[in-house]
Structure formats: structure tokens, C-alpha cells
Amino acid sequence: MADNSRHPAILLEAIDKSFGPVTANRGADLSVATGEIHALVGENGAGKSTLMRILSGMYAADAGTMEVNGRDVSGWTTAAAIAAGVGMVHQHFMLVPTLTVAENVVLGCELTRGVMLDRVAAEDAVRALSERTGLIVPPDRLVAELSVGEAQRVEILKTLYRGAKILILDEPTAVLSPPEVQELWQVLRSLRDDGGTIVLITHKLDEVIEVSDTITVMRHGRTVARMATRGSTPQAIACAMVGREVALAGDAEYVRGGSSGQASGAPSLLLEVRDLTVAGARRAAAVDALSFDIAPGEIFGIAGVEGNGQTELVEALAGLRRGTGSIVLAGRELIGASVRERGDAGVSHIPEDRHERGLVLDYSVAENLILGQQHRFVRGATLDTRRVLEHARSLIEAYDIRPTDPELPARALSGGNQQKIVVAREMARDFTVLLASQPTRGVDVGAIEFIHARLREAKAQGKAVLLVSADLAEVLALSDRIAVMYGGRFVAVLPRDKATPDIIGPLMTGAERAA
Amino acid sequence: MILLAFLAQTLRIAIPYLFAAAGGTLSERAGLIALALEGYMLGGAFCAVVASHYTESAWIGMLAAVGGGAALSLLYAVCTIRFRADQVVVGIAINLLAIGLTRFFLRLLFDSSSNSPRVAGFQVEGSGTGFGALVQNPLVWMGVLGIVGVAWLLYRTPFGLRVRAVGEHPIAAASVGVPVARVRYIAVALSGMLAGLGGAYLSLDQHQFTDGMTAGRGFIALAAIIFGRWDPKRAALACLLFAAAETLQIRLQGTQALPSQFVEMIPYVLTIVALAGVVGRAVAPTALGRTTTE
Amino acid sequence: MTSDPTLHPVGEAPSAATTASIEKRASRRVAFEEAVLPPLVALVLAAVVGDVLILSFGQSPSAVYRLLLDGTWGNAYGFGQVLYKATTLTFTGLAVGLSLRAGLFNIGAESQLAAGGFAAAMVGVLLPAGIPALVCLPIFLLAAGLGGGVVGAIPGVLKARFGAHEVIVTIMLNFIVLALLNYLVSAKFHVPDTLHTPELASGALPRLSDFLEPFHGSAANLTILLAIATAIAVGWYLFRTRRGFELRAVGMQPAAAEYAGVSVAGVTWRALAASGAIAGLGGLNYVLGYKHYYEEGFATGAGFLGIAVALVGRGHPIGICVAALLFATLSQGGLAVNALVPKQMVDVLQAVVILAVATSVPEVRRLLRGARAGASRG
């Protein structure tokens, strides 16, 4: 402990980690000094969480070295990490809802009196920690009854109770209200001032600037930049995150609010959404009284950090989630209609998760190409296998799906070709509006170009396209108008020529939320 | 007098339920469906009789029942935890295995397809109400202690805390270093031991093993667990309720007041009602039955 | 989920066309191996356990196995009994298999079978005498199907409506329905001094021995054709119809089925009702083909063995028919070898087969999928 100051608290070098065919980290580095708040930033899928899970012992790295306080700890276990004072607060809470706060805090290193659990001592310990850190939570309450902010405090208490000197927080503010965020910053600063080391995983630049001392930027599994926060601008960080020069901030001229109805010249509106509200699990409303229109031949892009209601919005439009308000497609009210009715009415949907929703992985390519339209490929009660195969062969050719065998299970195809199945299916049906959610996630460059071309084609045919993507570059490249979604609402709707990353970036991260 | 006799008979019927429900609660709270209680009980009943037949000691018979129940439950645990086999299928298979093994060894050891020779069991003196006999039977005391002990274990000890965590959110438990698989193995083994004792109570009380003598009691215990919403105290009350209904039915036999079959249905109907949420929804431990996917 | 990429080193890249055909063959081979390997493992393990039990009884395994085969497939009577038992097991196996395809576990085949048999027997009592069997048959099918179907629909509706776990509900319903039938038979409908209902007035199906003399004495009857027809119908429904396509999608990926416009709740209750109806039809084997009345416990255990049959048959109608024959052979074979070793040995072996299949399926899948992922990635 004596020579902590000589070594960095954390030193990760050349970390590689793959999950099957997906590479999460390749040669990632991280160096964090003792007693600092270190922001680990990057876009979704940049490999931040994976790297930190490796550090906390949840995953084993495929290659690379790890040092904590100068000691080589490569490949250690969760228990060893906890013992060495490394604690992680996960994005999805690791709390048992049916246990009390105190029980959750002591789980795994329980206080005992004889052979019995010492509940009083546990509650006292939590209270004492609460007083010391300002993380106030009633120790005897069930976690299920806590607010999100309180639950997060329990998570931090858990790590501190185990003597964590190095605290890793994964997207801690994603679920917090602004006052709760401010409280969290205070707690983190006081922990740092007591000599603690904090790694903050985030992609919200305002947070980075506000609270961190040092910044490491990751992109595509690699570490691409390390800088001191003082003197860094959001633009510089954003540039490193996205990997491209971004223009310096001009005056942000954008249109605020919802239904501005800026149809790009087209007279009629194809999709009119009014006051669409969807209940969420945590927030009162995941989608909060949204109103917008999409004109024929328009691509309406939604930019935003994931988890701000995009999924709920698209699923409510597709009929997979109950919503209130009004959804009118070409003059027809769709709210309350079933998924199939909406499909027949002209709603086409590329879902964000092809492995869960978009494909039945053990079905053949041909079968997947009729998924959702199976009722149109029937002869009496049976599926018309010949037509299904003909349909498959023509789409496989038109969309260059490989391998070309329609009877191969979808599971056997690469990610890009799997996504092409989904895109082919949804674009080949008779539709008037296309809901494209993360259409190019996890696919290779060639497939991305191909899918983008298809989306432009839909636009050219006069379809209305709703594009949701976590990839800002994609939204910018394709959309005619861009809405920025934050906390279930549109914080801005911008025409394409007004939308630049340096305007949208801060909006996405809520930086100018209150401005 | 009649009331006392009624209570004594209720308790007597309830003891095997209490044993099995105590074990089953522990297993289910750790996330493993207690579908094989019937099998553990049958195995325990048989082992108790075999061991006391050869050693002429009811106590050793009791220990053998613990061993028999533990062996079957560990087989269940290995299949479901180590090999991630489906809990429902394995549970059913263990029940069938217990039936088959007891039948086979009944033939092998005693050359009978229906019952074992008589064994002494615990020496008890009969009395008017039947309470006298009950208090002299150590297994009665253990049955009561068993369910109290499981409640104590679950809510008062570190192990119990871990069981509850593992059955509810195993990933969270693992993230703080709780050895999830080990906790589950222990909980399941204990469930087999307790249910095995329940079987020993049955066979030693009747002084012999008869084929299929558990007659669905393991499932009544499972019903009691669900009806008691996975809480040992409430499960114990459910066991007593089901046993009281049975006692009533026996007492009313011949009076034509209510056909016995309808009394038999009570535990099962109540369980379905509880599951359907008509009176207070029964919510199972979240990770129950999920060892296949983790 | 992670797989070992070091398995199956990959050589030079073949052309796209050959890759496609190689992949296709490989994936079919893996699917086939996934389906067939676990039952083989199970049989080997059962044979080992069987040897131990036989040796413990001081007999020679080879003699016992020979006797087992002689007493089942070795003579017409034994084979007839195998066919009779396999008929009931085919129905219960198909019932469980259909529910499994929808991702549901019907443990209630035991009581659905009894309810179907009882309903058919009751209808048979009501029918006037002298109606040709062929005319009665649709009525009996309807009665047995409804009897089992209603019992199956209850857990289906409770699951679809309240999310009540179908496993627990079907187990509990087994006890309830069997107690109810016990009451109905013993208190209302039995022939005095027996525990069975009166005989059918008409509609009995001929035994196989009416056409083939060697089957004389065995209970095998024309219901077997009904079982085969049901297997074909289930296969057709699952793999040819749109509803079957949707049902399997719900079983594999409920979220994808929902996305495809399928009502998951609707599929849930319909699948369980249909499963119950198929199990109910199994009651006809006894009521129409064998004793011509309903009797308490006429097929005890056939419902639970249906789970084993569906599992070993890997949920495919052809596999289920084969597995039904296997389990029927075991249970008839138990009787045949009873002179040498207790027939109860078979109960143990059946349990071992279920355990081994259940345990090796996920393991085999992991191994094969791991190997395949390694091969296709390289």
C-alpha cells in the first residue's frame, strides 16, 4: 500500500477479448492514477464495459496484462478483485430485489453472530457508511421498493462495504434524474478526495467535462486517445470518439420541440403520430407524448443515446408494445391494431435485435424471408412451399444473400447476411412506412453500404422511413430531418442542413437539455 | 377429546408433508424446482426400512433415509446444475427412478413385489387420543424442527441469505463472489435429506415399506410450498391445512357428507387458484427452473 | 454461449458455391447428430445400468436380453402386445411432443388420457346398439378429443391469461381429474361389484388378431392405425401448415413470433388444448380396441412415459413412433424376463433413459454447436 503513488492504480495493456465471432476489445490500454476520476468514453459497442468487466474479474481476457497498484492481476476472479479493493457498479443493477438493502450490501461477506446472520450489525454498518459518504438509503427496506437512484446508491455502498478503493461505474447516470446526477457527482468527488480512484464509463460528454480529471477514449475495441480533462473540449472528445474531424461549434440553430411538420416539400403526410405515450419499466413514460409526421419520400432519423425511448417508440409503432395517443398511416388510425393488421396496412419493420426478434435462427433462410407474412404464402391451411422457395430465391439474388441456399438455417449465416434477410423481407413486402431500427448494427462494411442504398431506394419510391440508429454518422448520412431523442422526448428536430455532429452531440448527451 | 384426537391425527398426517415441504422450500428458493420430492420420500422410506431391517435399529434406518434422499437429490442436482438438463424432465425421471429402484430392490432383497417384512420402527405406546404415540416418536419432533429449522436457515443465516439471493438473481450473487453452484448443490442435498426423513416417518410408522407408499405426498408438499408462497411458515400452515382436510375426510367416512375424492382435490385446487392469482398472486423465485440457460 | 474456436482447424478457403453446399451438408449433419446422439447415449447407459441390475440378481445379461427380445419381437403375441402398448404411448408422446414444440411442457397427459377414455366410454354407453364402428368412430374421436382437450385447455388458458406455470398446473390437474374420474366411476357409473363402466353398446374396433391369426390373444387393435394417422396429422400440422409454422416459432423464439404477428397467448392455449386432445384420443386404444369400457387405472404411467417418448423421439412424429415402440418393447420385455430378473428392472431402465437423454441433449448441442461455430468461423 505504501508505494501506491509510484504505480498507477490501474494499468491495462493490450487487452484482447472476443465473444465468438464478435471482437469486443483488441489491444485496449488503460492507465488510471490513484485518486482521480477517470472517464472512459466511447460510442456504444466501443468495448468500454467489456474492458471494465475484465478488470473486475467477470470476464477473462484472451490476451494482455492487468496490473492493480503495481501487482500483476491478469486473469483474476471476481472474488479476488473484490478482495483487492476493486468494485464495479453495473449498468444493470446487480441487486436482489427481494432482499433488503442491508442484506444486499453484505451478501457474500456476511456479518455473523455465532452461526447466525447479524442483521443489526449489517444495518448499522450500512448506516455508518451512509453517513460517511452521503449515500443515504434506509437499510431495512426491500430493494424492490427503492427508486432507481436509491438502488444505485446501494450498488455503490456494496462496493465500499467491501473496501473498494477503485470504483468502476458503468453508465451510472443513464437512469438518474438531473438532481440525482448532481448528488452522485458529489459523492464521487468526496470519495476521490478521500483517496479513492474512480473509473466512470460514459458516453455523455457533459458528464465527462463536469466530473472527470482524465479521459480515455475508446473506439472499436481500441484505446484511441488519453487526455487531461482540463483543456479538453467536448468537440475534441467527440472527434476522438467518432474518429473523424468535426467542425467546431457554431451557434446552435435548431428547431425545438415536436411536431413542426417540416415535410420536405411533399404535400401529404404519410405517417402522423400524435401524443404517443408508452409506459416504461423505470421511468413513468418511456415515450412521453411524442408527436411527429413523416412525409412520403422522407427519411426521418432519430439520433440519441440508446435507452432514451427509441426502442419503445419503434415497438409501439409496430404494435409490439401498447401505447396511447394516435398513429395515423395514410389516413388510417393504427393505435390498437395488431402487429399483423399493421403489417397488412403497410408498416414494415426492421427490428433492432435480429437474433431475438428479427429472425427465427433455426428456421431456414426461406422461412425467415416470409416471417410476418406467413399468412400470405398459404394454399389452404398449408404453407405454399414452392412459392416460399421462389420468393426466397428471388430475394437471395436481389439482395445478394450468401450462401445462396434458401434451405440453410439462418443461424449458419454471418451477421451481415442475416441482416440482409431481414432487410430483404421487410423491403420486399408491400409497405408504405418502414421502421428501420439499428439497421446496420454489427454488420460488415459491404452490407452497410448495401443496406443504406436500399433505404435510399425506399425513399426514392416515396415511402416514409423512420430511421433509428445509435450511429450518429448513419443518421446524418441518410436522414432528411433529424430528431434528437432524450428521456423519451424529442429535444430537437433539425433539417439535415442544420444538423452537424457538434450540434447534435451535446443534445444527445443531454448537455443542453435545459438550455 | 375428539378435538385432541383430531389434532393428533392431523399432525400425524402432516409430518411427512412438513418434512418434504421444508426440503422443497429450500430447493425452490435456491432456484431448483422441487418436482422430485416424491422420489426422495419414496427412496427415504425404502432405505429406512431396509437399514432397520438389517440393523434392527430405527435410528440407523433414519440415517439411511437421509442418505437415500441425499443420493437421489444429488443425482438431480448434478443433472440440472452441472449438465444443465431440464429440471422438469429430470425431476420426473427421478420420481420414476425411485419407483423403479424401490420395486427392484424389494424383489431383490425381500422377494416381494408389494411390501417389505415388518420392522420395529420407533417404540411407542398407544394412548387414547394418539398424542402419546406422537410425542414419543422422534421423527415427529424432527418434522416440526425441520420446517422451523429451514425457516431459521433461510432467514437467519448467511447460507440462507445466499440461497435466497441465488434463487432470485444468480448473476448478482455471482458478482459478489457467492459460489452459486455450490449453494445450489447444498440446498438440493438438504432437500433430499429432509424429504427422505419424511419417507422414513411413513415407513417406520407403518412398520414396513409398501410399493408406492408415498402416494403423491411429495406433490402435496409441492402444492403446500406454492400455496404457502415459498415461505416455510406459510408452507407449514398449508401442510397442516391439507392434513386437517384429510383428517376430516377420514372422520367423515361413511357419512356421505362429502365424497372423499373431493377432499383429496383440495390441495391441488387451492394451488391452481393460488397460481392463477385469484387470491393474492403466488410469485415464484425469479430464477426458479432456470439452470438450463445460465 | 462461447465456443472453442480451436476445434476443427480450417484449411484453404473453398469457392463460394462449394462453401454453400458444404455448410448445408454440415448443418444438416449437425442437426441430425443433435437429434440422434442423445438417445444412443441413453441406450448405451441404460444397457450398462441394466447389466449391473441383472448381475446383481445373479443372472447373465446376454440371456436376459435375449429373452427380452424373444418375448417381444420374437413372437406374434409378444409383438402384438408391444404394438398395443406403443399405440397408447404414441398418442401421449405426440401430445407431449406437440406442446414441447410450442415451448410448453404438458405433464398432464396422464389425466388427459384417462379423461379421453372416460368420455369415450360414456358416449359408448349412450349410443344405441348395432351402429357400424365406422359410423361411430367420428363420435368417439370427438368425445375422447374433447375429454382430453378440455383438461388440456385449462392450463393453457391459465397460462395465457395469468401466466400460471403450465408444469405445476398440469401436475395438480392430474390429481384433480383422476380423483374426479374416480368419484364418477365409483359413485355413479360403475357396473356393480367392479370398478369399470358398462361396456360400449356399439363402436368397438376389431383387434389385429381378427385379420392375422398369430396375434391371437394380444390386445393390439385397429386403434394403431389411428395412432399412425395422428402422427402423420401432427407432422403435417407442425411442418406444413401456417399454424404449425407459427407454433414452432413461438416455441423457439417467442419474441420473434410476436414480431411476426403471432399471438403468443393464443398459440399457448391452443397448443395445450390440442395436446390434451391428442392424449385423450389415446384412451380409445383401451376403450374401443381392448376392453370396451373405462376402467380406473387402465393406462397408469402411460402419460408420464409419454414425456419420455417425446423426449427420446426428439419431438418429431417419426421419432416419437420409434420411441413409443422402444418404450413399449421395454415394458412388455419386462414381463418376458420376469422369470429371470424382476420386471421392475424395466422401470429403472426407463428412468435411466429419460435422465440420460435429458442430460446429454444440452451437452451434445453445446459440443456440436461449438465444433460447428469453430469450423464456420475459420
Describe this structure in words.
The complex is a heterotrimer of chains A (515), B (294) and C (378). Chain A is an alpha/beta fold and 515 residues long. Helix content of chain A is 32%, strand content 25%. In chain A, helix 14 packs parallel to helix 15. Chain B has 294 residues and is mainly alpha-helical. Chain B contains twelve helices and no strands. Chain B has helices at 2-29, 37-55, 58-82, 87-110, 131-136, 138-156, 158-168, 170-175, 180-205, 217-227, 232-251, 260-276. The mean pLDDT of chain B is 91. Helices cover 72% and strands 0% of the residues of chain C. Classes of the chains: A alpha/beta (515), B mainly alpha (294), C mainly alpha (378). Chains in contact: A-B, A-C, B-C. At the B-C interface, helix 4, helix 10 and helix 12 of B face helix 5, helix 6, helix 12 and helix 14 of C.
**Radius of gyration of chain A, CA atoms, in whole angstroms:** 25 Å
* Main β-sheet description of chain A: 6 strands, mixed
- The computed structural class of chain A is alpha/beta
Q: Could you give the distance between the termini of chain A?
A: 46 Å
Feature tags:
heterotrimer, A: 515 residues, alpha/beta, six-stranded mixed sheet, 17 helices, 24 strands, C: 378 residues, mainly alpha, disordered C terminus
Summary?
Chain A is α/β, with parallel strands linked by helices. Chain A is globular.
Detail the topology: elements first, then pairings.
The complex is a heterotrimer of chains A (515), B (294) and C (378).
Chain A lengths: L9 E10 L2 E11 L4 E5 L6 H8 L7 E6 L2 E2 L5 H6 L2 E4 L11 H6 L5 E2 L2 E2 L1 H15 L14 H14 L4 E5 L7 H16 L3 E6 L2 H7 L2 E6 L2 E7 L5 H9 L28 E9 L5 E10 L3 E6 L6 H9 L5 E6 L2 E2 L5 H6 L2 E4 L3 H5 L6 H4 L9 E2 L2 E2 L1 H14 L16 H14 L4 E5 L7 H16 L3 E5 L3 H7 L2 E6 L2 E7 L5 H8 L7
Parallel strand pairs in A: 3-10, 3-11, 6-9, 9-10, 15-22, 15-23, 18-21, 21-22
Antiparallel strand pairs in A: 1-2, 1-4, 4-5, 7-8, 11-12, 13-14, 13-16, 16-17, 19-20, 23-24
Chain B lengths: L1 H28 L7 H19 L2 H25 L4 H24 L20 H6 L1 H19 L1 H11 L1 H6 L4 H26 L11 H11 L4 H20 L8 H17 L18
Helix pairs in contact in B: 1-6, 1-9, 1-10, 1-11, 2-3, 2-4, 2-9, 2-10, 3-4, 3-9, 6-7, 6-9, 7-9, 10-11, 10-12, 11-12
Chain C lengths: L15 H41 L4 H10 L5 H26 L7 H18 L6 H30 L3 H24 L33 H18 L1 H11 L1 H6 L4 H18 L1 H5 L14 H11 L4 H21 L7 H33 L1
